[in-house]
Amino acid sequence: MRLTIIWCLLFVLFSCGNGEGTSSSKKVENTSNKEVTQKQESSATKQSNLTYNLGEDYQLLATPYTTESPKHVIVYEFFGYTCPHCFHFEPFMDKWLSGKKDYAKLQRVPLNFNPSWSIFQQAYLTAEVMGLVDESHIKLFEALHEEHKRFNTIDQLAQWYAENTNVDKEAFLSTAESFILDSKLRQADKMGFQMQVTSTPTVVVNGKYKVSTKIRNRDEVINVIRFLVQKEAKEMGLN
User: Fold this and answer.
1) Which strand (E) or helix (H) includes residue 71?
2) What are the C-alpha distances in Å from 69 to residues 212, 226, 233?
């Protein structure tokens, strides 16, 4: 039985709310490239010296989720395509990805907090199996939140993937209904449950530390992720 059960429904009102926030950083106008570079270097230095507090900026899970990846620090990003806060958070995760250490690895996990989310969870995992995520992930977010497209069935989503990635629609549907996909759907639900995810977006570092969803500044969320990745990497002897 899929884990779209009471624990999910109790938090559905918050599932697109706790991650919302506005960045305190402001655009730099009329500034030379040299000055911008100096500011970026200064910011990077400050970030490397930041310290965050257990219980305030992040939580230690009572029962850590086993990543089974001793050579990587896994960063789990729990999201839902129809969640507007997940859409606005994605550019910040992309920024983290572009500057992350080689020992850090991102694993996106689509959740199913609401019955209407189920086809999008199925679509993402299908795209993942078929190697379509890089060319479709942001596009689907944009289709939903900027183009205001609506999808009610997996067939409609399969058509969208066919038009936007050149994948064969029937092959996409066949994968979406396969045994391996059913297994991945169950695993995604299980991961969300075991890592105590009650809202989106939520980030859990190495199945152990859950970044506080009360942090409203998205840049600060990324800084906490960097801090925890470095902390775990040191404990694992990776840096």
Assistant:
1) none
2) 24, 18, 12
